[in-house]
Amino acid sequence: MSVAEFFNMGGYALYVWGSFGATALLMVIEPIMLRSYRHNVLRRISRLARIKAEERV
Amino acid sequence: MSSRFINWFKFSSPATFYPLAGRMVPVFSLIAAALIAVGLYMSFFVAPTDYKQGEGYRIIFVHVPAAWMSMFIYLVMAFWAALGLVFNTRLSGMMTRALAPTGAIFAFLALWTGAFWGKPMWGTWWVWDARLTSELILLFLYLGYLALQGAIDDNRRADRAGALLVLVGVVNIPIIHYSVKWWNTLHQGASVSISSGSSMSAIMLWTMLIMALGFWAYTIAVALSRVRSIILEREADTTWVQELAEVRS
Amino acid sequence: MFSAFRTLLGRDLLLAMRRRSDLFTTLFFFVIVVSLFPLGIGPEMNTLRMIAPGVFWVAALLASMLALERLFAIDYEDGALEQMLLTPQPLSLLVLAKVLAHWLVTGLPLVLMAPLLGLQYDLSSEALGVMVVSLLLGTPALSLIGAIGAALTLGLRGGGVLVSLLVLPLYIPVLIFGSGAVEATASGLGGQGHLSMLGAILVLSLLFAPLAASAALRISAE
Amino acid sequence: MFSAFRTLLGRDLLLAMRRRSDLFTTLFFFVIVVSLFPLGIGPEMNTLRMIAPGVFWVAALLASMLALERLFAIDYEDGALEQMLLTPQPLSLLVLAKVLAHWLVTGLPLVLMAPLLGLQYDLSSEALGVMVVSLLLGTPALSLIGAIGAALTLGLRGGGVLVSLLVLPLYIPVLIFGSGAVEATASGLGGQGHLSMLGAILVLSLLFAPLAASAALRISAE
Amino acid sequence: MLEVAGLACVRGDRKLFSDLSFSLQAGELLHLHGHNGSGKTTLMRTLCSLVRESAGEIRWQGESIHKLGEEYTREVLYVGHKNGIKDDLTGVENLRVSSALDGNPVSRERAWEALEQMGLRGHEDLPSRVLSQGQKRRVALARLLLNRSRLWVLDEPFTALDVAAVDFLQSIIQRHVESGGMVILTTHQEVRITREQVKELRLGWKEDGRV
Amino acid sequence: MLEVAGLACVRGDRKLFSDLSFSLQAGELLHLHGHNGSGKTTLMRTLCSLVRESAGEIRWQGESIHKLGEEYTREVLYVGHKNGIKDDLTGVENLRVSSALDGNPVSRERAWEALEQMGLRGHEDLPSRVLSQGQKRRVALARLLLNRSRLWVLDEPFTALDVAAVDFLQSIIQRHVESGGMVILTTHQEVRITREQVKELRLGWKEDGRV
Ligand code: HEM
Ligand SMILES: Nc1ncnc2c1ncn2[C@@H]1O[C@H](COP(=O)(O)OP(=O)(O)OP(=O)(O)O)[C@@H](O)[C@H]1O
Ligand SMILES: Nc1ncnc2c1ncn2[C@@H]1O[C@H](COP(=O)(O)OP(=O)(O)OP(=O)(O)O)[C@@H](O)[C@H]1O
Ligand SMILES: [Mg+2]
Ligand SMILES: [Mg+2]
Prior knowledge:
The complex is a heterohexamer, with one copy of chain A, one copy of chain B, two copies of chain C and two copies of chain E. Chain A has two helices and no strands. Chain A is mainly alpha-helical. Chain A has a domain at 21-57. The longest helix of chain A is centred in the middle third of the chain and has 44 residues, at 13-56. Chain A is rod-shaped, with a radius of gyration of 23 Å. Chain B is 78% helix and 0% strand. Chain B has helices at 2-11, 14-46, 60-87, 90-122, 130-151, 155-169, 172-182, 202-234, 239-242, 245-248. The longest helix of chain B is centred in the first third of the chain and has 33 residues, at 14-46. Chain C has one domain (2-221). Chain C is mostly helical. The A-B interface holds A 6, 9-12, 14-16, 18-20, 22-23, 26-27, 30-31, 34, 37-38, 41-42, 44-46, 48-49, 52 and B 44, 49, 54-56, 58-59, 62-63, 66, 101-102, 105, 108-109, 112-113, 116-117, 119-120, 218, 222, 225-226, 228-229, 232-233, 236-237, 241-242, 246-249. One adenosine-5'-triphosphate (ATP) sits between chains F (11-12, 14, 16, 34, 36-42) and E (123, 126, 130-135, 160, 162).
């Protein structure tokens, strides 16, 4: 089975790769977005904590 | 008996759950990566070509696990929702919230891959058949939940309103599952059932199960890591959060 | 207890009478939607007959969805809802009274109007009959289900779209069975099965919707 | 003077952003109406292509009509309208700002969405183009005309139906020329004539509607 | 009768009050003090079980009010910032509806009489929409004359009322307390209430209050 | 400056007042009295040209206010029963928008300062929706600090305010009057206003008033 044949998927390339591709894409994007979410939250909280510390001084 | 009870409630406190979840995330990420890698290998190189559907049937290895996950995550959300409404624990609202986006993604994937399968098999992207419609409704329920959460600023109200919505929508799950039985539809009937063994070849079944388990592990990892951020956000002004190493730096 | 039910029902009907035009808003909307289509599409009877069940049910669904906004909103704004929560009556009973009044004002006229409008679309009298029955079973279910969504989104500005988003998924089955019944009758198959599904949905929502809606009201009234 | 115009425009857009979902209410409604029809009617492409212009324009008209209720109502209730009447600015300019904001929030998204939804109905790209242009000319006219109705019925409970009654007769020409343009293009005749009629309606309503609406506001604010 | 233990309430991300404890017996009046935004309204709504407390417990005759449910709400009469009357109904209709919902229907005559006592003579059958601010408030307060609840929770009842109406309302409150009722009240206006059975509670001061 | 001659106002089928005449000069304050429903709000809205009089005339510097149109409304600031603030905007945004519409845009800092003076420190950037009754009123009244209108028409400005805020508001009003402004005011609360330049007008008494 050649590489080209493999990617052709017996004529179903669009459908098979369309499905697997979308799944892979979303399952990669989601963790990335989660990381940036966490990053944002941490930055916001650190800033809050700093402001609080300054106020106390 | 009572000591077990206390243990339970200890872990339902965000302060203890946060580090625990932190330790579990990498474990499940690894499991997910390994299972999905094996599953992908099996779906393309081990599983044989179907005599009727040719190579096109390979979509089954993402379609069915995604569809299962979309339903299962909803049930888990309903479980947390009920818990939250009854015991008024803070963590349950956060768990429901953390699961929803992933559930929505899987519901979308089930629809997407189903459509990409339907085009070659049925000759159409979409029909208004009972299973397809009820799965679409599931996606709408997820989106509705997320929209409702976005619209309410007060966390407590958001949690309780969301929990109620999730519980109302749970009627949809049995409908999705049994729709093929109750109405005669275009969609495939159950091909995996406990009672009568399996109508699929064993290797296909195994591949599907491994993919499904991989998706499971992925969901756990993602949901736990999301709930950690939610905990941080909501408990921002407590001392335990402000003393965390990652906040201080 | 039932005196409270009757009082609230009476009050809401009286209010609808006083405002008078409220009685007609939904009906008028329904009539417009149904009548504008021949205007926009053209007067070919065959096309019209084909699209009639869809048009009627979509119109009914939209009309019912739009009316939802007013179900609890006014009570919420003028404080009457708080007072309702503090009466010694089971809240779900009061909710049921409000939903019933709401349906009598917005749903029933629409059901009664449907056969008249159906003539525009050249429907057979049998199909018209089934249409009325399906609307009679379906619209109360829509009001009941919608009450949950209306209660959940109370006081959230721009609740309109939220209500639609929350309620629509639960409306779709009603739409499918409703228009399905009419279509099946028009094309010679019986609409029985569809109608009994509608009946089942109605019974279920009668049982559960008031409870869910009253829980939602308690949450939203904070 | 223009700073007041800009401030009010900015405020209304900001409010729409804050409520966020308000941005989508009308759009969502439009999408639902347009998408529910294939559901109720069935997926035959020929039928769908035939009814498409009608469905789109009726949906746009209804969406615009429903959005009217919110045009002045909130300002009226929270007292911001009284304050607007007491500013040293020409009222019709303020009305124009409000209508513009309203159209940007409710009308424009709908125009932008239309081509995407048109694909569902298998419309030719030419017909889609004309549809967008016709909506672009038509929807601002709908908002302007509607403003008069909205101002007149302010504070009348159940104003909804009244608005529809007052405004609908003036809307129908827009509907007819709008869907006419698309239909003419789809069937090979040019839509030019219809479009220029729409343009004329737009210009006229730009000139007169703000004046009429501000006079109506003064009456209703008593 | 009413006992509050360790009550706390959080709104958004601010703690309005915490660890608040007091009790109220039959024939007592509790006067809540506090500057704007100190949480008086929130506290009152919590006591009526309209808002969920974040911590602590509220007990009525020894039972948690959430357990009691409708048995408790029967005993409570709440008049808040909002009047809770229907703009399109007349005063009499409003009064009769709210009494019926409260579980003691009254006759037309009785309602008419109550409104007259509240100084709404000649306005009983106008739709409330056209009434003045103070007249609307009077319609809402007329419920006090007909109600049999033991605990009255009144959030700034005197706003918009003219001097005569304020006096009359004070006398009603006093009568209720003397006949063994309980009242929780807040107002920014200076009002004379019989000094004997009055408890005071201050919110929003440095050390959050205990009576 | 402001002259009222033979003013009458009819609502529904009742005559609220008729043949009312008075005038107001720079540096004067007019205190309207009257029981609930006597027509104070209606009179004030008439003076702002929000309600059309049934008879009589209102003149500003000798010209009918309906002729003057926007020239007159520029000189008037009205605070009514309704606050006229947007629930979804923060205090600062509300204040800046209303000032800009009134014709004198102010900077963020200036608005912030005004709110702080009104005692809303720490609440400036909360959406007004979550503010307490009194805090909303304060946001609405903060306009007084920024406005350059000569005639203030204040309909029960003191409702919902706590004692500190009432005092502060009184001092603002006094300052405005002393610097040559005019104020028309109604309140049911007892407030001290400098006695010198105060005119009183009673509505709803047997012989409808003349100052
Ligand atoms: C948009 C279209 C589709 C949607 C929304 C959809 C949805 C679903 C859902 C929700 C399930 C899980 C049901 C359950 O476990 O209870 C499922 C399972 C399955 N689907 Fe689809 N599907 C679609 C199209 C297709 C197509 C075109 C095929 C094949 C020709 C297909 C084959 C299957 C199979 C074999 C299963 C496993 C059945 C079982 O074990 O219950 N699906 N689908
Ligand atoms: N979501 C929120 N975020 C931040 N603060 C909030 C939120 N919701 C309410 N608050 C605050 O809670 C307080 C509400 O107080 P409440 O209405 O109980 O005051 P009050 O004592 O009745 O005041 P008033 O005398 O003005 O009526 C206000 O200070 C308000 O700013
Ligand atoms: N359509 C109508 N029919 C009959 N009476 C009306 C109508 N509209 C208004 N009124 C009467 O006009 C009066 C309105 O008075 P207004 O609101 O000016 O009173 P006010 O002096 O401001 O009172 P308050 O002190 O309570 O604010 C009320 O007595 C009301 O009953
Ligand atoms: Mg308060
Ligand atoms: Mg008044």
